[in-house]
Design a protein that fits this description.
502 residues; mainly alpha; two-stranded antiparallel ribbon; 20 helices; disordered N terminus
C-alpha cells in the first residue's frame, strides 16, 4: 500500500487508537495524547492534500471484506467532496482538544477522540452499510459528551436530538436494506457498494425511488438540520461543552449535506431534480427563520446556534440549486462555516467566562476592557456576515448565482438572509462589546498568548480563503464539474436548472 493509499486508513484508525490510550492515562497525559493524536491527524491530512490529484476520481482506495453474509467491504477513499472536510475535521479536533482544559477527565478526551474518529469514518467509507454503522456510532460520543459534561439543561437537550435522529436513521436503514435485498435478488449476493447500488435502484419504479429518496433525505436533513427539523439544534449547542460544540457545529452538521451529496442524490438523480426546488425552498426558509430567531434571542450561545442554523441553510441552498456555481459555493461554504462557527463559539465562551454570564443583558462595554477579545470577535463576525475580503463572501456569492439559475425569487429571498445575518451579528456585537459598561464588570485579563495562539491562525485563514478562494475552489472544481455533468447525463436536459448545464 503506497503512501497516498495508506493515508485515509491512518486517518480513520488514529483517533480510535488514541482514544483507547487516553482512556487509560491520567488526565494531563490523556489530554497530551489527544493533542498529539490530533496534531498527527492534521499532519496526515496535510500530506493527503499534498498528494491529492485534482481530478474527480476516488483516491487513496483500500478495501477489506467484512460483515460476513452481507457482503459489505470496508472500502476507503477520498475525493474532492470529502478530502477538505476530512482535513477540516482534523483541525477542529485539534482545536477542541486545545480549548478543553487540563482538568477534564481522561474519559472526556477519549470520547472526544471517538467523536472525531466516527466522523472520519463517515467521510472515508464507500460502502453504504458501513457508512450507516459509522453514521450511527457518531451519535454515541455526541450524546455522552453532552450528558456527562454539558450544562444543567443537558438532559432536556438530548431528548429531541435522539428522537429526531433515530427516526431519520431508521428510515435510512430501511432504504439501505431494501437496496441490498434488491441486489441479492438480482445477483445472488448482498452488495452495498455505492457505485453498484446506483445500477440496482435504476430499475425501481418511480414511486419506489421517490420513497427511497425521501427516506435518505430525511436522515441527512436531521443532521444539517434542514427546516423544520432544526428544533434539537439550539438546546444541543447551548448545553454541550465547548469542545463538543466545535465538533457538532463545525463538522457533524456538514455530514448531513455530505450525505445528501454522497448518497441520496447520486443514487436517485431524477428524484433529486424533481425535489430540488422544494428542498431549496426549505433551505431558504431555514436561512430566514434562523436569522429572525437569532435577532430575537437573548443568550449569546443561542444567537450563535441560530446563526449556525441559518448559515447551514446557505449550504443546503447551494446543493439543491443543482448548478455548478451553487455546488462550488456550497463546498467552499462548508469549509468556511466550519472555520467561522468554531471561532465564534470559542470567543463567545471566553467572553462569557470573563463576564460570568451568557445572557446578553449582562454584557456591555467589553471593547474597552478587553480590546483584543473584542477585535477578534468583530473580525470573526464580519467573516460570518460575508464581508468582502473574508472567507464568507465568495461562498455566499456563488450560492446566490446558483440559486438564480434555479429561481430568481429563491435568490432574492437568500439575499434577504444576508441582510438579516448582518443585522443580528451587528446587534450581538453592539450588546456585548459597546454601550455602557455593566456591573459587575468582567473579570480576568484580555486574551493571553495561549489564547491568541489558538485564535490567530483561524483569523488568518479567514483572510486567506477570502482573498484566495481558488486555493479551495480550484481543487474542488474537477469533482463538482463531474458531479453536475453526472446529473446532466442522468436526467433530461430540460429538467435541469439553467446553470446546471456544463
Amino acid at each position: 500500500m503506497g503512501e497516498t493509499l495508506s493515508l485515509p486508513v491512518w486517518m480513520l484508525l488514529l483517533p480510535f487508537i488514541a482514544a483507547a490510550l487516553a482512556a487509560l492515562l491520567p488526565a494531563r497525559l490523556a489530554r497530551a495524547v489527544a493533542c498529539l493524536a490530533m496534531v498527527g491527524q492534521l499532519g496526515l491530512g496535510v500530506m493527503l492534500l499534498r498528494t491529492f490529484r485534482d481530478q474527480p476520481d476516488l483516491q487513496g482506495v483500500a478495501s477489506w471484506p467484512m460483515l460476513g453474509i452481507f457482503g459489505s467491504t470496508l472500502r476507503l477513499g477520498v475525493d474532492g467532496l470529502s478530502v477538505f472536510l476530512l482535513v477540516a475535521g482534523a483541525a477542529l479536533g485539534l482545536l477542541a482538544v486545545l480549548v478543553s482544559g487540563a482538568k477534564r477527565p481522561p474519559a472526556f478526551h477519549a470520547w472526544l477522540l471517538l467523536f472525531v474518529g466516527t466522523m472520519a469514518g463517515v467521510l472515508v467509507v464507500q460502502d453504504l452499510l458501513v457508512f450507516y454503522v459509522f453514521w450511527e456510532l457518531m451519535l454515541l460520543p455526541a450524546l455522552v459528551l453532552i450528558l456527562l459534561w454539558g450544562d444543567a439543561d443537558r438532559r432536556k437537550a438530548t431528548v429531541p436530538f435522539v428522537v429526531v435522529t433515530l427516526v431519520g436513521s431508521l428510515a435510512m436503514l430501511a432504504v439501505i436494506f431494501a437496496m441490498g435485498a434488491e441486489a441479492h435478488a438480482r445477483f445472488g449476493a448482498w452488495n452495498f457498494d455505492l457505485d453498484a447500488l446506483a445500477g440496482v435502484v435504476s430499475t425501481w419504479s418511480a414511486s419506489a425511488r421517490c420513497w427511497a429518496f425521501a427516506g435518505l433525505v430525511l436522515a441527512f436533513a436531521v443532521k444539517i438540520p434542514l427546516f423544520p427539523l432544526h428544533y434539537w439544534l439550539p438546546a444541543a449547542y447551548t448545553s454541550a461543552p465547548l469542545p463538543a460544540v466545535i465538533l457538532l457545529s463545525g463538522l457533524m452538521a456538514k455530514l448531513g449535506t455530505y450525505g445528501v451529496l454522497r448518497v441520496a442524490m447520486p443514487l436517485f438523480p431524477e428524484q433529486a431534480v424533481a425535489w430540488a426546488p422544494w428542498l431549496a425552498g426549505l433551505a431558504v426558509v431555514g436561512i430566514l427563520h434562523g436569522a429572525v430567531l437569532a435577532l430575537g434571542a437573548r443568550d449569546v450561545r443561542t444567537v450563535l446556534a441560530y446563526s449556525s442554523f441559518s448559515h447551514l441553510g446557505w449550504i443546503a441552498l447551494g446543493i439543491f440549486s443543482l448548478t455548478a456555481e451553487g455546488l462550488g459555493g456550497a463546498m467552499l461554504q462548508q469549509v468556511g462555516h466550519a472555520l467561522v462557527t468554531a471561532t465564534l463559539f470559542i470567543l463567545a465562551a471566553w467572553a462569557s467566562e470573563r463576564q460570568g454570564a451568557t445572557h446578553l443583558s449582562r454584557f456591555g462595554g467589553m471593547a474597552a476592557t478587553h480590546p483584543w477579545l473584542a477585535a477578534a470577535l468583530v473580525f470573526a463576525a464580519m467573516a460570518s456576515a460575508g464581508l468582502p475580503g473574508l472567507n464568507g463572501f465568495v461562498g455566499e456569492f456563488l450560492i446566490l448565482l446558483g440559486a438564480w439559475g434555479l429561481s430568481p425569487w429563491v435568490a432574492f429571498a437568500g439575499g434577504l438572509g444576508v441582510v438579516l445575518g448582518a443585522a443580528y451579528l451587528l446587534w450581538l456585537l453592539q450588546r456585548m462589546l459597546y454601550g455602557p459598561a455593566v456591573q459587575p464588570a468582567p473579570t480576568g485579563p484580555d486574551l493571553g498568548v495561549r489564547e491568541l495562539a489558538v485564535v490567530l491562525p483561524l483569523l488568518v485563514m479567514m483572510v486567506l480563503f477570502g482573498v484566495r478562494p481558488g486555493l479551495l475552489i480550484d481543487r474542488m472544481k474537477p469533482w463538482s464539474d463531474a458531479y453536475v455533468l453526472r446529473f446532466h447525463k442522468a436526467v433530461p436536459q430540460a429538467a435541469l436548472p439553467t446553470g446546471a448545464h456544463p
